[in-house]
Amino acid sequence: MGGRILVFILLVCNYLLIAVADTATEDLTALKSLMDTWQKTPPNWVGSDPCNGWDGIKCTNSHVISISLSSTGLAGQLSGYIGSLSELETLDLSYNRDLAGPLPQTIGNLKKLSTLILVGCSFNGPIPEEIGNLQELLFLSLNSNKFVGHIPPSIGNLSNLYWLDLADNQLEGPIPVSSSSKPGLDMLHHAKHFHCGNNNLSGPIPPKLFSSEMNLIHVLFENNQLSGSIPTTLGLVQSLEVVRLDSNSLSGLVPQNISSLVKVQEMYLSNNKLSGSLPNLIGMSVLSYMDVSNNSFTSWDFPSWLSTMQSLTTLKMENTQLQGQISSSFFGLPSLQAVALKGNELNGTLDIGTTYSSQLRFIDLRGNQIDQFRQSDGVPEVKIMLKGNPICEENGMASQNYCSDTQANDNLYKTPFKNCDPGTCSLEQIPSPNCQCSYPYTGALVFRAPSFSDLENNTHYTTLEESLMHSFQSHELPVASISLSHPIKDSDQYLELSLQVFPSNQDRFNRTGTSSIGFLLSNQTFKPPKEFGPFYFNADRYEHFGAAGPSKSSNTGVIIGAAVGGSILLVLLILAGVYACFQKKRAERAIDHNNPFRRWDSESTSGFPQLKGARQFSFDEIKKYTSNFSQANNIGTGDYGKVYKGTLPNGQLVAIKRAQKESVQGAFEFKAEIELLSRVHHKNLVGLLGFCFEKREQMLVYEHVSNGSLKDTLSGKSGFKLDWIRRLKIALGTARGLAYLHEHANPPIIHRDIKSNNILLDERLNAKVADFGLSKSMVDTEKDHITTQVKGTLGYLDPEYYMSQQLTEKSDVYSFGVLLMELITARKPIERGKYIVKEIKSANDKTKNLCGLYEFLDPTMDLGSTLIGFEVYVNLALKCVEESGDDRPRMSDVVKQIENLLLLAGANPNAESASTSASYEDISKGSSRHPYSNESLDTGVVLPNPKIEPM
Q1: Out of 49, 454, 753, 798, which one is annotated catalytic?
Q2: Per residue in 237-289, pLDDT tens?
Q3: Is residue 712 annotated as part of the catalytic site, yes or no?
Q4: What angle do CA 67, 68, 72 make, to 5 degrees?
Q5: Do 522 and 92 form a contact (C-beta atoms < 8 A)?
Q6: Predicted TM-score (pTM) of this structure
């Protein structure tokens, strides 16, 4: 009887499973194919019915209509089977940074697709022409990937398209417009957003691109290589609100009819080659933010019509050949917040009057010809900068506040706690504004054209917080509170804010929660307050998923199957438990036998001459020094793992790098790395104090370096300004550290990953070379090179090593040459597809001031002063990046040349630098940033062996 019942149950189960599988067979096949090519899919993607409870999947009539998996940790490629989902309307895979590979051509088969969002992934290759087949598409957002090639002209066929965002890729070639034989972007009459900034687009802006039939409100083409003139047809698009054409190579006159764009609020035309003068823009009555700096305008008087622009908050006209005197009435504009007019020929008296705007915070007139300043009561509220004007060269005037060169600090705003005490959170949890400890969903909100410049006005952020919470609540998302912090403006004049979103009624989000929040931000459902303008969100990886809630619908087949399988599973578990106990004992013996550290004394290494000074710490000691790896001591996170600040019993601060499980290397490889690190001792190398190899943990204990990485300092995140002498001393310290590795370590060592992330700065801003995870020792070889797999960081990588796989000390010299260029430009080696080495080589002209590199140089270096030895420095950097390693100098020769440069500049190359507190203002006091955080933990990338693209 029991056997018959069992057979009956099995038959019922089989029938139910077949019935489920018969529904939407093609959709099921497609999703199974996606699972085959993806890693880290949601754990509840099991069974034969994707429409019944699979995270991120929505269905209608057994067909998949939506795949929404933003911020779920997916990795792999997008299978061509995606084109089989014939009813799919929404595809959002945003913020999965490990999703890579090309976008399959079969994407064009999704005839019902209305929303395609792939923001913040790593997709590469060309955008397929087949994307033009998606006739129902309203929302196309492919920004922040690695797409290359041309913008497909077929996008012009998407007649219903509302949103086009292709920014932050590596797209090149012309902007496509229609002809008799092909479509183009000019056909997108319903589109309101053209976001194409931060690419490599070239050629002129086609006049045909714009017409009076268009409904665009945002035209963003900043940071490309566009040339020619601004087309007069731009003035026909009366709906425009934001125009960004800055940082291109546009030339000619600014069209007169641009003043007819009466709805434009933000206009950026800076960093081009525009000539003539700016036309009268009095008709643009709502214009609030205007930047036309760094153009080739002819000498022209400060426009009187500017004093009538009642909505103006920010005026930037740096290096535009302005002359004459500024009327005091200009400073009375009611909304005016910031005025940046440095590097012009303005003269006479600066008089901001007695009725200046109550919102005015900043006036930068450095490098003009102003000889008098009339100061009224209350003016000290306004930061005024007049260095480089005749008034500051008079006797006794240099000490005046307005003759200093210090700019206003970045605002350190953070959402306050709401009348509660946050207390101490455990593990990696963070207290919310409501003082609830949890794991928030985090990322950066980036606004591409905010209409305000006063970052210290906290009212802006309060308004944004209220708007965000209202949006989350109105869409019934599981959000209890949010926190905004650290508003900064980057070199592109984007406003970036750190966002933390805290869960409600639990301490973490599940995948559905993060995906829903990500979708609301990626598809622009959230509409920020008007003054913030267009935005994008860049989510951090979320690693604290909670268990998914129970499915709303029951699966009868699964329940019956579970009843039958439960008994079998119980028996298997009992057998597995017995076997596991036996295997555990056996594994412990094997681990102990294979542990290369098992005979090392944890208190001393005197019996092991291969270690010099590095001691072995126990796991319990490390826990004690870091207060059980408390969140308060967590000072960095990266691909390697996490870094904690620790305090030894003698009071010494240390930095402890704790490898995450997937980064743990083999025990013998870990031992070899420690032996290498323990052999090098130099004041310009970060010292290894010890290690821990216990309980399957791999930890390195370093000296604590207090002032962060060189990259953080150059980006402004550390809060220190570097003058010319300080930069030379940082270059010298780095060179000395490398020269020691190459010529004094026994055997010699090649670092293999020299970059600004790996140069740390101590309390006196002395440079220390860090992160030896990729280093190679020249031991037991009679050759002058090592043949090895190519590893390193693109942009700094020696092309000769890349092509030949033969590593030499000259590979470090090449990386150091790139670092020298980064040190004076504060730019990434590869930025928006432009390679710094190529850019510097092309622009270098010894017949011009500063070798013709003015536009590339970091303005915080005080370019108005004399940079003694600058030409020699540039020649040295170019010598270090010669194509052939034989043509590059040795690091010891580099050291001598930089020492001579410092002597030439009147500085002692062997003198200790002054402490940072003696000459620099730490505007990041209280910041959580640390030298070992984020990218500074990177151990480099393993690279394939085709031609190197950036060259």
Answers
A1: 753
A2: 999 999 999 999 999 999 999 999 999 999 999 999 999 999 999 999 999 99
A3: no
A4: 120
A5: yes
A6: 0.59
